[in-house]
């Protein structure tokens, strides 16, 4: 281990690592909190904070400048160095499978934002919100992408918290009621496809066929839909049209959803939400303050318009 690295294992060095996590929350050319404020938050002395800040400067992580009675200002910070010294490591985000330009754009936008922030980042793709949530709770992923609707439901039952809401149209464009040609919605024993691993699709199917005790539920994924309809094994479903619009075939027609369901979709189900484990404040705060989430949505739109090649 080099001498420079060894210094971060001392008392002052450990304080510097904690201070690095705090400094990720500050932008260049802004006034820093007073030494005693940092000292109170880190529960160390003023002298330890001063020594820790000097270590960070020597490591090239930050550059500060005292401006008399105005206080100390952060002139520049290297977020990649701060992130490494803070021990936050590589963040792994779990996303839906990239089967649509919308999800390809979202993945590309997240990677671009993390790269600009200098934060180590990787993506894994998992089908089903419940699968992604399990990976988060088991510590196999640090961040998870869900719809805002699913994120709110999950937060009521599990120790997770919202990191960011990317806004309408970032998760899905629209849903529709898919009906096999020749089938009648009011027919007794209607066979309805549902993906139980998706909180959104399960809820939407239940809403669309509410009160229909005669319905026969058929477990399915989007990859199976075309075949199931073509073989006459399912009659209807509610699905994300981003997934199936180009893969439905001639056996399926798309009908509009009930207005009330459509209004609910427009508000929360279409928004992509990023969630993390509750209690992991330094990492989640660093993500909130370091990432330019406007860049995420801008890049997503560019990919969807065909103006940018997906890279994730």
Comma- or semicolon-separated keywords:
20% strand; alpha/beta; 5-stranded mixed β-sheet; 312 residues; 44% helix; 14 helices
What's the topology here?
Blueprint: H1 3-6, H2 11-23, E1 30-31, H3 35-42, H4 46-58, E2 62-66, E3 72-77, H5 79-85, E4 91-95, H6 101-117, E5 121-125, H7 129-137, E6 143-147, H8 148-157, E7 160-165, E8 175-180, E9 191-194, H9 199-208, E10 216-219, H10 222-230, E11 236-240, H11 241-244, E12 252-255, H12 259-269, E13 272-277, H13 281-290, H14 293-304
Parallel strand pairs: 4-5, 4-6, 9-10, 9-11
Antiparallel strand pairs: 1-3, 2-3, 6-13, 7-13, 8-11, 8-12
Helix pairs in contact: 2-4, 3-4, 6-14
Structure description:
The two termini are 33 Å apart. The protein has helices spanning 3-6, 11-23, 35-42, 46-58, 79-85, 101-117, 129-137, 148-157, 199-208, 222-230, 241-244, 259-269, 281-290, 293-304, and strands spanning 30-31, 62-66, 72-77, 91-95, 121-125, 143-147, 160-165, 175-180, 191-194, 216-219, 236-240, 252-255, 272-277. It has a five-stranded mixed β-sheet with strand order 5-4-6-13-7, sandwiched between helices. Strands 10-9-11-8-12 form a five-stranded mixed β-sheet. A three-stranded antiparallel β-sheet has the order 1-3-2. The chain is elongated and about 80 Å long. It has 312 residues and is α/β, with parallel strands linked by helices. Helix 3 crosses helix 4. The chain is 44% helix and 20% strand. The protein is built from 14 helices and 13 strands.
């Amino acid at each position: 281990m080099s001498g420079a690295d060894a210094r971060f294992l001392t008392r002052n060095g450990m304080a510097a690592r904690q201070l690095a996590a705090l400094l990720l929350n500050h932008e260049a050319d802004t006034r820093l909190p007073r030494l005693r404020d940092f000292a109170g938050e880190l529960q160390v002395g003023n002298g330890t904070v001063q020594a820790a800040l000097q270590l960070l400067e020597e490591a090239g992580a930050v550059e500060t400048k005292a401006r008399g009675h105005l206080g100390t200002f952060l002139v520049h910070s290297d977020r990649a160095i701060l992130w490494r010294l803070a021990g936050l490591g590589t963040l792994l985000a779990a996303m839906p499978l990239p089967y649509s330009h919308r999800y390809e754009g979202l993945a590309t936008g997240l990677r671009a934002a993390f790269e600009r922030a200098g934060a180590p980042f990787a993506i894994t793709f998992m089908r089903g919100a419940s699968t992604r949530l399990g990976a988060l709770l088991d510590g196999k992923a640090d961040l998870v992408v869900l719809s805002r609707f699913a994120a709110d439901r999950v937060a009521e039952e599990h120790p997770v918290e919202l990191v960011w809401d990317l806004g309408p149209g970032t998760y899905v464009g629209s849903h529709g009621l898919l009906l096999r040609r020749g089938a009648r919605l009011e027919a007794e024993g209607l066979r309805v496809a549902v993906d139980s691993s998706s909180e959104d699709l399960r809820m939407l199917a239940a809403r669309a066929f509410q009160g229909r005790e005669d319905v026969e539920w058929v477990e399915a994924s989007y990859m199976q839909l075309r075949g199931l309809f073509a073989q006459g094994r399912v009659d209807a479903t509610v699905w994300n049209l981003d997934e199936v619009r180009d893969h439905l075939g001639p056996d399926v027609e798309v009908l509009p959803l009930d207005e009330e369901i459509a209004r609910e979709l427009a508000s929360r189900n279409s928004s992509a939400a990023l969630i993390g484990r509750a209690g992991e404040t330094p990492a989640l705060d660093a993500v909130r303050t370091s990432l330019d989430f406007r860049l995420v949505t801008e890049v997503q739109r560019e990919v969807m318009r065909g103006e940018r090649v997906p890279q994730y």
